Amino acid sequence: MKYYVRAELLKKSFPSHDRSSGEYVVFENLSLGLKKGEFTTCIGHSGCGKSTILNIFAGLEKPTQGGSFVGNRSIDRPGLDRAVVFQNHSLLPWLSTLKNVMFAVRARWPEWSGAEVEKHSRRYLKLVGLEGSVSRKPFQLSGGMRQRVGIARAFAIKADLLLMDEPFGALDALTRGVIQDELIRLWSKTDQTVFMITHDIDEAILLSDRILLMTNGPKATVAESVVIDIPRPRDRATIIHHPNYYPIRNHLVEFLVKRSKQLSPEAGTDSCSADQVKDKPSLIFPPEVRPQQETTTSVPEAAH
Amino acid sequence: MNLTNDPFDPNIDLWNECGERSQSEEAAPTSIADFVISPKEKETQAFLSKRKFATGDPGSVTQRALENSVMKGIFGDDLSRRRFLKAVGASTAYTAISSLIPFHSLQAMVDDAMKKIEKKDLKIGFVPITCATPIIGGHALDFFKKYGLNVDIIKTAGWAVARDKCMNGEYDASHLLAPMPAAMSLGLGSASQDWRMVTNVNTNGQAIVLANKHKDKNDPKLWKGFKFGVPFEYSMHNLLLRLYVAEHGIDPDKDIQIRVIPPPEMVANLRAENVDGYLAPDPFNQRAVYDGVGFIHKLTKDIWDQHPCCCFGISQKFIDENPNTFIVLLTAILDATNTVELRQNRVAFAEAMSPRNYLNQPSAVLKQILTGIYPDGLGNIKNVPDRISFMPYPAQSMGVWILSQMKRWGYISKDIDFKSASDEIFLSTETESAMKAMSEKNRNVKWSDIPASKYPVYDVYGKEFDPGKVIEYIDSFEIKRS
Amino acid sequence: MNVQFRLKAAVLSALMFIVFVVLWHGLTFQQSHETEGIPLTSEQSALLKASGMSESDMQAYAAKGLVFEQIQQIAGLGLSSADIDAAGGIESFGFTTGGAAEEAKTGFPSPSLVWEEAYEQIRDPFYDKGPNDKGIGIQLKYSLLRVGAGFLLAVLVSIPAGFLIGMSPLVNLAFTPFVQILKPISPLAWLPVALYIIKDSEKASIFVIFVCSIWPMLLNTAFGVASVKRDYINIARTLELSKFRTALTVILPAAAPTIFTGMKISIGIAWLVIVAAEMVIGGIGMGYFVWNEWNGLNLASMIFAIFVIGIVGLLLDFVIGRLIAVTDYKE
Predict the structure, then answer these.
(1) Under 8 Å between Cβ of B315 and B166
(2) Which residue, among C103, C297, C298, would best test binding to B if mutated, counting the most B CBs under 10 Å from its CB?
(3) Is the pLDDT confidence value at C190 over 70?
(4) Which residue among A222, B42, B104, C51 has its CA within the 20 to 30 Å range from the CA of C230?
(5) Are B341 and B448 found together in one domain?
(6) CATH number for position A33
(7) CA of C246: which chain A residue's CA is closest?
(8) In sequence order, what DSSP letters do the residues of A123-166 get, joined into one string?
(9) Of the candidates C130, C151, C96, the residue with the CA atom closest to the CA atom of residue C270
C-alpha cells in the first residue's frame, strides 16, 4: 500500500438534537491516505470534520464506523508514535517552557536521566529559537512563542506522524511566516509524516506536498488530493513566481468557492466517489490532481 | 482481694485472692464421725450466718477489709488461722480477738488501704460551682496529696458532658448532681452504666434567683408564663423548683417553662432576659446580685433544709477494680468536706477556689456564699450560716426522695422498688464506715448528719416524707405526671 | 500593587482602628467615684450602740460612705466587722456608693482594661498552673493541634474522594445526595453523637473538625478535577501517561488552586468550629479559655481571647493563601 497513514471508510455521526432526522452525519465513507515523509495539509470549510479526522488519527476520538491505520497498526488510542500540535497550543500553564517540553520527552523516554531529558528538550527549544525563554511560564509568552513551544514539544518526541490542527490560526501574519519557515526547516531534517489542517491557501501551498480538499458537511468527503508540483526548498518571496503557483492557487480557490458546495451530497450532486455501492462501499482514495501551467487537466492516479 | 469473705470463716482461704473454699483441709470423709457436725462447727455456722444477715451490716466492704487486715496480722498464715477458728469456734474467736484488738478501729482499715493504693494518678471531673467545694478546695488545699493520691481535677463545661466523660472513662470519679448516678444507672437520658453516689459534696447551697424587673413578684403564684433555667434535667434544682412552684399551684410543665442552661451561662441568660429566673447552684446566684442583674428570691435550704444537691460519684467498676483507692479517695473527700463545714475554714476555702484554675470568680463572691453573709439584691444583708452546708452522709431516704420525684414528674415511667434502687446507688454503708473511721482517728472530727436509721424521715417544704410510704407521698401531690 | 497605594490603605486601616478604640474608650469610660463619708448624728450613734455595734465599726462604715439605714441593717445582723471582712468586705455588698461603683466594676471593660489583661497573658503565654489554668500559648497550641489533626484527616479523605467524584460522572451523581444532605449539618450537631460513639472527648473534637472541613475540600476538589481543561488531559493521553500519572502530574496541578481554595474555606470553618466545640467539651484549648472566662464573667479576658482567635484565623488564612498563590497559574 503506498499510503503510510490511512483513514478507511470513516463515518462520524452524532445523535441529532432534532429528533426527526435521527443522526447528524459529519462524514461518511471517507477515505484518505498520507505518504510516508510527506507534508499533507487538509483544507475545507468549517464544519466539514477536518479536526475530527485529525483527532481520529491522534486517537483522541473514535470514528462511528471505519478504521484508521499507521503502517499496519490500527489506531484505537493515542500514542507516542503520533505527536499533536493543538490549535490553542495547549501548554501546561503551571510549567515553564522547558518543563513543558521535558514533560513530553520524559514520557517518551522514561529510561532517560534528568540531564538527558533536559539536554534533549533544550535542543528542540533552541531549534525554534526559544533558548532564551526556557524558564518562562506560558502566560509570559506571546501567542507565537507558545505555538513554537508546542511545535518543539511535538518534534522533540520524534513521532512518526505529526498532527497539527490549525497551528497558526491565532497568529498575526508576520509571526506566522517566521514560524512556518521554522516548521519546514525542522520537518526537512526529519522523515516525519505531517498532517496539518489549515484555512490558509497560501500557507498550504508553501508547506505541502499535497493538499486534501474536503467538501462541505454534513456528509463531507475528501474530494481530491492536489499535488503541489513546486520544488523545495521554497521561498515565500519567490514561490509566487513559480509557473505552477497560480494554477494551483486558482484551483484551490475555485474548489473552495464553488465546487466544495456542489460536490456535497447535501447539494444533490453526486460525490466524487460516485461509483460506490450503497450498502457495500468500496475503498477508494481521493483522486490526485496536479494543477499546472497552461493545462489544468486532472491526471488521476498519475505515476510518480 | 475479695473483701466480702468473712475472715472468721474457717473454710475459706483468706490469703487466696479469689477466696475459694480450700480443699486441702477438707479431705474426703473417711469415717462416719466425719459426717457428724460437731457442736463447735454448728455454733460457727450460726455465728457466721448471723454476721451475714445482722443489721449491723457486716457485709460492708470497709468493715470486712478491716477485719481481714487484722486477722492476717494476727495469724501470719492461713493454716494457723483456720486451725484456731476450728479449734475454738468462730464466735469464741471473735470475742477473744476483739477483746485484744480494737476491732472498731476503722482507721486501721484506712491505713491498710493507703498502703495498697492500686491507682495513684486519678482524674476527677468537676463543674465550676461552689457545690464542689470539697473537691475543688480539697485539691487546692492538698487534701488528696495528704492521702497519697495524685489527683488532677478537670473542669467540665456542663452536666451532659460530665456524664459523657464519666461514662467514657475519661474521669475516674466526678462531681455529679445527686440524681445523676441514679439516672446513669437506670439509663435515663443515656446508656446505662452502674454509677454510685458516694457522698454529698454539699447540702443546701442553691437558690431561686429572679431578674431585677420581677422585684415585685415575690409570690410564685404570679409566675405564670415565666421561663426558668435549671442546670440539668436530672438535678435537685429541677426537682426542687418543680416541687416549690407546684406547692404554690403552678404546674411546672404547663404554667412555666423550664430550660436546661449550663450553670456558667445562667447570669448571661438572665441579663439577656432569656429567662425570668433560675434555680441554680452558687456562685451564679450570688454573682447575679454582684453583677446587679437579679436578686435572691429564696434559698433552697428554706424549701428543704439539708437537702442533697451534688455528690461525689464513682463507677461500680472503679470500686471493684480499686477497692483500696476507693477507700482512700473517699476518706480524702470526707476530710475536705468535714474541714470546710467548719466555719473557721470557710474563708480559706473561698480564697483557695478563687483562681482561674478553679472557680475563676472574685473571692468576695465566694466568701459571701461560704460565710453566708451576703446581700440578697433587694437591699438587705442576710446572715445565713448554713446557706451552704457540707454534710456528706448520703442517706438512703435522699435517694428514695429523688426517685420519688423522678417518678412523680414522669422521668421514670416503669414501677421500681424505690428502696432497693436507692440502696444500690447510694453507698451509705461504706461512707458511714469511712466517716466513723475518721472520728476514731481524730476525736475532734464530729459528724452531725449520720442518722439513727438509714431511712430517716424528712420534712420537705412542710410535708413529711417517709421513705416507707413513697407511693402515698407521690399520690399526696395534686400536680404530678404519674 | 503599587507600594504607595498599599501604604495609603494601611494608614486608613490604622485610622479606622484608632477611631474604634477611641469610641470604645468613650463608651466604657467611668468616672471613679470618691466615697464621701456621711457623719453619723449622735442620736444615730446611740441607736447603733444600743444594737451592739462598736463605736469604731460604725465610724468605719460611715467613712466608707454607708448611710445610717445601711449601717443599722448591719448592726441588726449582730456581726462584727471581722465577720463582714471574712465575707469579702462591705465594699462587695453592693451598696457602698449607691451602686455606681458596682456598675464600673462589672460593666463592659474599657480598652485599657482589655490591654492590661492582654499584656498579662502575652507576657507569660506558656504558664501552667494546673489542668484548668494554662497560658494562652498552651491553649492555642492544643486548639491548633486539634484543628491540624482533623484537617489533615479531612485532606487525606476528601482529596482522593474528590478526585474520584470529579473524574467519574457516575460516582459524582451517586455521591451527590449524601453530600447534599451531610453538608448543611452544623458540625456541632455531630459533637454529642461523636462523643457517644467515640467515647473520647479529644477524638470527638477532632472528628468534628474532620466533618466540618471535609465538605468544602471535597466539593472544590471534585469541581476542580471535573473542570480541568480537556486539552490538558489530551496532552497526557497523547503522551500515553497512565491514569495515575495523569492524575498526579496533570489533573492535580491543574486543579490545585481550586483545591487549595477549598482548603482555605475548610480551615476557616475548622477554626470557627474548634472554638465552639471546645466551649462545649472543655478541658483545654482556646474555646475552653473563652468558656472559662465566660464562666467567671470576665469580659476583658474574653475580648482579648476573641482578638487572639481572630488573628490566628487570619494567619491560617494567610498560610493557605500563600499556597494558593504558589500553585496558581495563568492561562
Answers:
(1) yes
(2) C297
(3) yes
(4) A222
(5) yes
(6) 3.40.50.300
(7) A107
(8) HHHHHTT-GGGTT--GGGS-HHHHHHHHHHHHHHTT-SEEEEES
(9) C151
